[in-house]
Amino acid sequence: MAVIPRGPSAPQMSRAAQKNAPKAARGTGKRNNSNPSGADGKNLGQGRGFRRLSSDFETKFISEKGTKPKNKDYFGFVELDGFVCWVVAESHDNDKDVVSAKIAVDTVLSMFVKKPSLSKRKLKSHIAEAHRQLKLQSNRYNLKASIMVVATNYTKMRYAHCGNCRLNLFRGDSISIKSRDKSLYQDMISKGLIPDDGEHGLEESRNLSSYLGKHGILKVDVSKKTVLYDEDILLLSTWGFWEKVTTLEMLDALEEIEEPLEYLEELQDLFLSKQEDTINNHTIAAIFAHKTFQEPNNKRKIIKMALIIGIPVLIVVISLSILSYRRNVRRNRTIATIASHESRGDTFIVDRNYDRALFEFDSAIRESRELRETRWRRGRENREIREALEVRQRVTQLIVDGDALFASSRYRDARRSFENALLEARNNIDFFDLLEIADIENKISLCDDFEYTTELISLADYQAELGQYDRALANLSEARRIAERNRNIDAGREINLRLERLRSQIEANEAAESEANRIASERERAERLQEIEILELEADRALREGNFEQAISMFNRVQASYIELNEMARAFAIEQKIVDANNSIRQLEADEQAIIAEGHVRIGDMYMLENRFSDALVSYRSARDIFSLIRRPDDVVRVNENISLAQTRQREHEIMSAIYEINQIEEEGDAFLLEGIFWQARERYRQAQALFRGINQMERVLILQDKIRDVDALEAELIERILEHGEV
After folding, report:
1. Using one digit for the tens of pLDDT, what is the confidence trace for 359-395?
2. Which of 156, 357, 675, 712 is the most buried (most CB within 10 A)?
3. Is residue 88 part of a domain?
4. 3-state per-residue secondary structure call for 565-624
């Protein structure tokens, strides 16, 4: 057995695989470029010697996650002395923790190591076991996967697959084998709806008709044996790869390729060149058969030995064949009878006729006693048939027992029987899928409801004895609701009788309590009115003393009490007292605000005397806002007059300040004119002119315009003199 080291990020094998295949290669995330070599010196019962030593098969693979968060593909292989098995799988579920492809690959390799063979039945059973493991380990998600299994004895090969993983066998410059998918895409190709060019209809290649983990019957395709020749090349790939790279492109990439690693790198470069933003999980494995095992040619020796022992053996074989034929006929007849009973029982299970189904399964088990259990293959098959029947019989018996217990009002025992039926049915996944689980769960729910109804009735009787009539009524009403929902007629009739008796008792108690309550209520009302009248007198005194807020609080309490006692006339009278108290409070508040406003007016007057007009306006406006708030229009008019006066004085002050500054500028222009600096004089005059225009002093604007003309005339005269006499 070759030792194949794993990459650093490849996951660990399952315990079963580690136990049975300690030297098997696995990978999910990185390239494995190991070169298998060497042997462990053991012959694992192949009966064919060390075929591996006389052969040369080189395996390389690449398995990467692309742009996905996790690689859900898985590849593994195991080399034995007489056999090699390669397995590639792809997950189709959304479970983030469990890699269903890994479970499938580990299961197949573990089974193959136990019983290595190219038998079609063995390969099928390995894949069926992987299917069963995925169903058993499904928890929050239903685990699903595609798988391709390739096995060889170094001379011939056979492959088995389910889903859309692919195998290609390249021989020379041609494609010798191309596996068929279990998908709508393959069906469309077979029917001639689309060409098999890898370009059309690929979106249908994910629509699988069979895959590991599916509900119902699993369909596995197993090929015939194919002879391998030297230099044959096997290529295994998952959907994530072959949906981008066609078979012809795979063949073209082999040109001038001698090593599998070189071939894989060429394929991956081609694959990556076709990607856009998203790259799927992809796995490719290349096996180069550099040398296959050649069977020795011992034809003459074989013929001679056949003549010596052939005739006696032939006689024995014929005798055994006749005996075996008779046994087979009898066995097949028994199996057919069992299958008939089982089929009818399954039909009754689907129809929920569990009594008839139990009769059929009992009959099938009686027939199965004729099947002998031996350690040979048929004996194991007989045992498997009986075990499957026993599961059906036990489950059906538990359901029938549960129905009987339910009918005898032993609801807790019935519930336990139904739950055990569901638990037992999980030992046969196919039968579990056949059962109407919702029907059994409904029976369990009915057991809970019927038992709960009985408990509610007992609890209501106890509460009625304690005088807790409301609780007793609530529990009886709840029990009746549950009984009506479940059509529990007997319980509903019993509950109605109890309700009538309880209501009669409640009515009698209520009549007695009503009279006592009326007398107590009238006495309590008189006492309450006396207390309220005393509180009203205290509130009147507080109002007279000027404690308005206290008076309002007390009046509100008095009014609420009168309303509570339905003394509406008195309540309306109290409302007027509350209004009067609130008016008094508002008047006091208005007087206080008026004093504050007058303070603002006096402050504004002080600011006016100091020519601080902006501050005066702020104070006047504050006073006006307060007078407006307390609704004193005369005071508002008076303060508005002060505001107008302050605004006028402010504008006059601003104009005087501006005129003073402009005069300074004009004087600067006069000084420049005396010095003969005409352009500076003209600039100052124009600046002053613009400022006078801004404050609407048009007379000064005209005066400055005359000065500007004078400057222009003097400057022109000076220039003329210079030009004529050269004088300044």
Report:
1. 888 888 787 777 766 566 766 777 777 777 778 888 8
2. 357
3. yes
4. CCCHHHHHHHHHHHHHHHHHHHHHHHHHHHHHHHHHHHHHHHHHHCCCHHHHHHHHHHHH
Point out the domain boundary residue: 295, 316, 340: 295
Alpha-carbon distances of 251 from 57, 168, 173, 243, rounded to whole Å: 19, 9, 7, 15
Question: Based on the domain organization, do 316 and 333 belong to the same domain?
Answer: yes
Helices and strands counted in the chain (H then E)? 21, 13
- The CA-based angle 99-100-103, given to 5 degrees, is 95
**In angstroms, rounded to a whole number, what is the distance separating the alpha carbons of residues 479 and 481?**
5
Phi-psi region of 22 (alpha: psi -120 to 50; beta: other; left: phi over 0): alpha
Distance of CA 590 to the CA centre of its chain: 65
131 with 232, same domain: the answer is yes
Residue whose C-alpha is closest to residue 23's, from 68, 103, 81, 64: 81
For the chain, the domain total comes to 3
CA dihedral 416, 421, 427, 433 (to 10 degrees): -130
20 in the same domain as 70:
yes
Per the CB < 8 A criterion, the answer to whether 488 and 451 are in contact is no
Q: In which domain, by residue range, is 697 found?
A: 664-725
Decide if 636 is inside a domain: no
SS (H, E, C) 233-258: EEEEECHHHHCCCCHHHHHHCCCCCC
For the chain, what percentages of helix, strand and coil (3-state, to nearest 5) are there?
65, 10, 25
What is the per-residue pLDDT across 132-177, written as a single tens digit (0 to 9) for each? 999 999 888 889 999 999 999 999 999 999 999 999 999 988 999 9
Q: Given pLDDT bands bounded at 50, 70 and 90, which one contains residue 182?
A: confident
Residues 351 and 231 occupy one common structural domain = no
Instruction: Kindly state the DSSP code that residue 523 receives in the 8-state scheme.
Output: H
